[in-house]
Amino acid sequence: MTGRTAHPEASADARFMGRALELAARGAGQVAPNPKVGAVVVRDGEIVGEGWHRAYGAPHAEVDALHAAGNLARGATLYVTLEPCAHQGKTPPCTDALIQAGVARVVYACPDPNPVAAGGAAVLRAAGIAVETGTGEAAARTLNAAFLHAVRGHDRPFVTLKLALSLDGAITDAAGGRRQLTGNDAMAAVHAMRADADAVAVGSRTARIDDPLLTVRLAPAPRVAPMRVVFDRTVALPAASRLVRTAREVPVVVVTDGRHPEREALLAAEGVQALHGPTLAEALRALRQRGVRHLLVEGGATLASALVGEGLVHQVVIFQAPVVLGAGARAAFADLPAAVAGALPAWRLLERQAMGEDLMMRYALFGD
Predict the structure, then answer these.
(1) Count of CB atoms within 10 A of residue 337's CB?
(2) How far apart are alpha carbons 336 and 63 in whole angstroms?
(3) pLDDT at 152
(4) CB neighbours of 177 closer than 8 A, spacing ≥ 6?
């Protein structure tokens, strides 16, 4: 029997890049509109410095890691999740810091598509530094999917659909009342997702039945609290809802068809803004014009079905709970016509992990 043995250096590269990706994730909610980036400095097979982009305007991950490594960076390898920048922004070019530190080799996961910041690899090679790319690229792209989407100039936000489902694929039982399916670990993960989004959205039925706040409470507070959005064509959001009552604390936007100015005026008096979007695609473009690069949609079935059916979702994150809701339970895509569902391409699994008793699965849908 024959088999392949991974090259020792390739295996080490994957391990060190994996650590850099772990560090990069710590910037969630703190660095936007910049990407999340992590870096490690390795000398003689050991990590001698770690860093990540900790806050918007703070030193980049490479500089943070070089500072931690000190003189040990000379002749070392630096692993970083995004191509080092070669431009002067809020901070000096990372390429300058790497050259001055005497790093011998740089391994980066993902090229920087931003034309302003790109070109770092060429600068490093010209300075005699060995540069390699590709290790961990898929994971790095997933981590910064919303950033990469925005940099490419798309006129709609990157849309992540989050669903909490039972084992039989339902979001509520036959009674249709409010019920928390998932456990504390999954809930904390959802709040971390909120912190990393520019806006969090629900449909009108979910807003009325669940009366959610849609704020970040079980994760570190983000640099900018995400806007809260209700897709509510007829402006039926109750004035007594928690969203309306807190609209002056964290922005709330109601997406309507523009045919109910009197109701819009009543909510406007409470601090709720109206956004007109005759179609979902137009509504998403309007949100993008308001600065929303990453939209997290948390339900319900009508909104989820419409977004998926119209090809407007980029990722779906499912938290599956170990419960069965049985006959009459409302399916997550109950309003998606069978013919439309049958024509959809297969979803691509990006990630799967246990969260307490629940299972989290992340899928890619329609590219970027």
Answers:
(1) 11
(2) 49
(3) 92
(4) 209
Mean pLDDT of 149-161: 96
62, 83, 264, 298: which is the annotated catalytic residue? Answer: 62
Using the Cα atoms of residue 334, residue 154, residue 247 and residue 55 in order, give the sign of their dihedral. Answer: positive
User: Does residue 82 contact residue 112 with C-beta atoms inside 8 Å?
Assistant: yes
Is beta strand 77-82 parallel, antiparallel or unpaired with respect to 315-320? unpaired
pTM (2 decimals)? 0.94
User: What is the widest separation between alpha-carbon atoms in the chain?
Assistant: 76
How would you label 106-143 residue by residue, b for 16+ Cβ within 10 Å and e otherwise?
bbbbbbbbbeebbbbbebbeeeebebeeebbeebbbbb
Residue length of the chain: 368
Which residue(s) pair with 227 in the sheet? 199
Contacts 24+ apart (CB under 8 A), 135-139: 135/10, 135/13, 135/14, 135/17, 135/79, 135/107, 135/109, 136/14, 136/17, 136/18, 136/20, 136/21, 136/81, 136/109, 136/110, 137/109, 137/110, 139/18, 139/21, 139/109
The chain-wide mean pLDDT, for the chain, equals 94
Amino acid identity, position 139 = A
In sequence order, the β-bridge partners of residue 359 are: 320, 354
The DSSP call for residue 251 is -
Checking DSSP bridges between strand 170-172 and strand 199-203, what pairing results, if any? unpaired
Is 132 designated active site? no
Residue written as tokens 């249709």?
176
Residue 341, φ and ψ in degrees, nearest 5: -60, -40
CB-based contacts of 332: which residues, under 8 Å, 6+ apart?
Answer: 163, 165, 169, 170, 171, 301, 304
